[in-house]
Structures are given as structure tokens and as C-alpha cells.
Design goal:
The complex is a heterodimer of chains A (114) and B (114). Chain A is built from no helices and 12 strands. With 114 residues, chain A is mainly beta. Chain B is mainly β. In chain B, strands 2, 4, 5, 6, 9, 10 and 11 form a 7-stranded mixed beta sheet that branches. The N and C termini of chain B lie far apart (36 Å). Classes of the chains: A mainly beta (114), B mainly beta (114). The interface between A and B is medium-sized, with 25 and 27 residues.
Chain lengths: 114, 114
């Protein structure tokens, strides 16, 4: 079945450091790929997405490129802020037999120190 | 526009009790779903619905029941609560339930079963 593997956390950085959170996937067909962010005590919200190979999703300084050849969708940000501290989930979705099945990674906690 | 709302925010049950977690959305979304979030496990799909009157099982449906009588509401029923159902529950919705859709999440219900 489909699966998403993302790096384990927590990832601890100082403010203004460069961030990479790795995400790789296994899927049949042509999935769409997503990064969701969960701030403490809240539900998940979309950070960015890419729906086909070589697409780049971007939002709030975060970027990720859909790499079909390496089945990856790594999240990057050039300069993190304390307010970026949250849990980040990589996810994919496919449509199989008419059913829409989303699959989430286990989440990576990011802690940014001043 | 309230988005996706969930009630209650917190709930404590005793083993064997039943209860209903409420979920409502005001975005006229066709697709709604329930997830549970456990530490180190990411999000796992419990049940989903592609429209009023239509529901289907996700990855972990046992011990839960759903119905979808209106487009707006998608309640989740715990038939006989067990300690293994202690978790944080999220309701989500999206426009049509296609693989490119963004999911919109509620704030979650934290359930403890003693």
C-alpha cells in the first residue's frame, strides 16, 4: 500500500538557520503531495502542495519540489523563525477505484530557539 | 465562515460508555473524514464520506460508527469505549475528495478512556 516516510524529530534549530525535513513516499499511480503544519493545540493546516512531478509548492518561505525520480518531497526554508515551531506532516493522496485515500507520515517536530 | 468545527474539545469516558463526537463544516464540502492521532503514529483514517448518505471505512474503523445525513454534519460514534481509543480525534473536509484537494481540519477532540 501507499506509505510516507519522514525524518524523525525533534529537529532543533536556532533562529535564522536553514531547515530541511526529508520526506519520501511509496505510491501506485500519480499521487499529489502535501505538507501540513500543526501548531500546538490546533488542527492541521495546509502549508503547501504539489500535484504533479517537478511542481514546486511554496508558502510563507517554505518550499518543496515533487521529485518523481527519487520519490521525494523534502521541505526547506532558508531562515526559520521561532514562530515556525510546530509539527510538520508530509502526506500523499491518490484516487484508487473511485476512492480518495490520503496517507500521512508520522510528523516531524520542529523547535526553533531564539 | 467557521470552517470545520468539532465538539467537545475534551472528553473523559469510562470503559464501556458510548458517546458521539460532533463535526460540522459550513464550506459545502462533499468529502468528510475522521482521523485519530496517536503519538509516533501520525494520522490514521477511521471513516470517510464522499457525500450525504454515503460512508466507507478507512484504515482503523473497528469500534467506531458514522453516518452522514446532511452535507454539513459527520458525527463519529464510539459504541463501547475502550482504553485503546484514547487519542486525539480530528475531523476534516475537502471539496470533492479528489487526490489534489486540500483537506481542512477541525481543532480536534482529546478523548481519554479510563
Amino acid at each position: 500500500g501507499d506509505s510516507v516516510t519522514q525524518m524523525e524529530g525533534p529537529v532543533t534549530l536556532s533562529e535564522e538557520a536553514f531547515l530541511t525535513i526529508n520526506c519520501t513516499y511509496t505510491a501506485t499511480g500519480y499521487p499529489s503531495l502535501f505538507w501540513y503544519v500543526q501548531y500546538p493545540g490546533e488542527g492541521l493546516q495546509l502549508l503547501l502542495k504539489a500535484t504533479k512531478a517537478d511542481d514546486k509548492g511554496s508558502n510563507k518561505g517554505f518550499e518543496a519540489t515533487y521529485r518523481k525520480e527519487t520519490t521525494s518531497f523534502h521541505l526547506e526554508k532558508g531562515s526559520v523563525q521561532v514562530s515556525d515551531s510546530a509539527v510538520y506532516f508530509c502526506a500523499l493522496s491518490t484516487t484508487s477505484g473511485g476512492s480518495y485515500i490520503p496517507t500521512f507520515g508520522r510528523g516531524t517536530s520542529l523547535i526553533v530557539h531564539p | 465562515n467557521a470552517g470545520v468545527t468539532q465538539t467537545p474539545k475534551f472528553q473523559v469516558l469510562k470503559t464501556g460508555q458510548s458517546m458521539t463526537l460532533q463535526c460540522a463544516q459550513d464550506m459545502n464540502h462533499e468529502y468528510m473524514s475522521w482521523y485519530r492521532q496517536d503519538p509516533g503514529m501520525g494520522l490514521r483514517l477511521i471513516h470517510y464520506s464522499v457525500g450525504a448518505g454515503i460512508t466507507d471505512q478507512g484504515e482503523v474503523p473497528n469500534g467506531y460508527n458514522v453516518s452522514r445525513s446532511t452535507t454539513e454534519d459527520f458525527p463519529l460514534r464510539l459504541l463501547s469505549a475502550a482504553p485503546s481509543q484514547t487519542s486525539v480525534y480530528f475531523c476534516a473536509s475537502s471539496y470533492y475528495g479528489t487526490s489534489t484537494d486540500t483537506q481542512y481540519f477541525g481543532p480536534g477532540t482529546r478523548l481519554t478512556v479510563l
